[in-house]
Amino acid sequence: MDFFLHLVVTIGLWIPISMGYTLLFGKGQVMHFGPIGVSVACGYAIFVTLGATGSYIAGIAMGILVGTAVSLIFAWLALRLENDGLGVMSIAVHLAAMVIVLNWTDVTRGALGIPRIPRMPFLETLPMFALAVTLASLFWIALFVWADRSALGRQMQALSESESFAKAMGVSRAKVHTIAFVLLGLAIVSDNVFFAQYIHLLHPNDYHFPTFIFLLAIVVAGKPGSMVGAVLSSILLVLLREGLRFIDLPISVLGPMRLLLFGVILLTAVYVRRDTLFPQKRTV
Fold first, then answer.
1. Do 187 and 20 meet the contact criterion of CB atoms below 8 Å apart?
2. How far apart are CA 140 and CA 284, in angstroms?
3. Residue 262, phi-psi category: left (phi > 0), alpha (psi -120 to 50), beta (remainder)
4. Which listed residue, 31, 34, 186, 243, has the most CB atoms within 10 A of its CB?
5. By the 8 A CB rule, do 28 and 224 touch?
6. Of residues 162 and 251, more confidently modeled
7. Per-domain residue ranges for the chain?
8. What is the DSSP letter of 123?
9. 38 within 8 A of 93, measured Cβ to Cβ
10. φ/ψ (deg, to 5) at 76
11. Interatomic CA distance for residues 134 and 119, integer angstroms
């Protein structure tokens, strides 16, 4: 039963960020490779503040503030750089965030991470934690499905197909992309609030590029831009990843094998969807 609830929690944590990322990366065709960079900033903002104040309210407020600020920085970069330039710059911002975390040891404890993170009083038992994560996940599913089917989703697709035509119809790229970046950032804040509580630890190893590769594999395998695909892919790939725990191999072998497996899944998904990975540019 505990393992089943663990699966529920893990799937519930991946769904919001994968839906937010498929809206931006898949439907919007924005080469944003920095969601884990936003995540590391949010995570440390929340739990450094919690350690200093002892208040989850202050920690979550700081996480929202930092998550929104970093998301707005990425949105600003997206409006001023070409897609390939944004991709490179977003990776650079992620690396910069990791450098700060690893070297600002007086605040972040560097490579040691922040241990013994307490859970909120009503989340101390695993069933209650799983219920809270599920409710949060359902909220984000409803929000992103609504966003996808609203004018925001249609405008993002119009911008991805032909920015000049979209602008001629009165679509503001700055407004649409900023909203999408902020929505993804807030979903990331939600995930960080739960994740570190769940494992009682905030550690920089959880924010390296293998985490981003797994997120990208979810979005590409589920069909970029598809909300249903993001949910189903999150469920299936989390089940696959957690199922690998039962393979009787040393951790030194299992870790690289897991990364290689999801790299192969990502490569295969990109190859299969090479003609339809992104919306086709309209021509006249």
1. yes
2. 38
3. alpha
4. 34
5. no
6. 162
7. 2-208
8. G
9. no
10. -60, -45
11. 16
* Contacts by residues 51-55 (CB-CB < 8 Å, ≥ 24 positions apart): 51/114
- Asked if the model's pLDDT at residue 257 lies above 80, the reply is no
pLDDT for 243 equals 79
Q: Crossing angle, helix 35-53 and helix 173-199, to 10 degrees?
A: 50
Query: What does the angle CA 54 – CA 57 – CA 61 come to, to the nearest 5 degrees?
Result: 115
Strand 201-202 versus strand 114-115 pairing type: antiparallel
Give dist(CA 29, CA 102) in Å, integer. 32
Coil, helix or strand at residue 30: coil
Q: Which two tokens stand for residue 244?
A: 């690998």
**C-alpha span between 173 and 214 (Å, rounded):** 28
Question: Given the structure tokens 């309210």, which residue do they identify?
Answer: 57
Average pLDDT over residues 199-206: 93
Which DSSP symbol is given to 115? E
C-alpha pair distances (Å), 57 with each of 131, 185, 187, 236: 20, 18, 17, 34
141: tokens are: 């599913």
Mean pLDDT rounded to a whole number for the chain: 88
Distance CA 240, CA 217 (A): 12
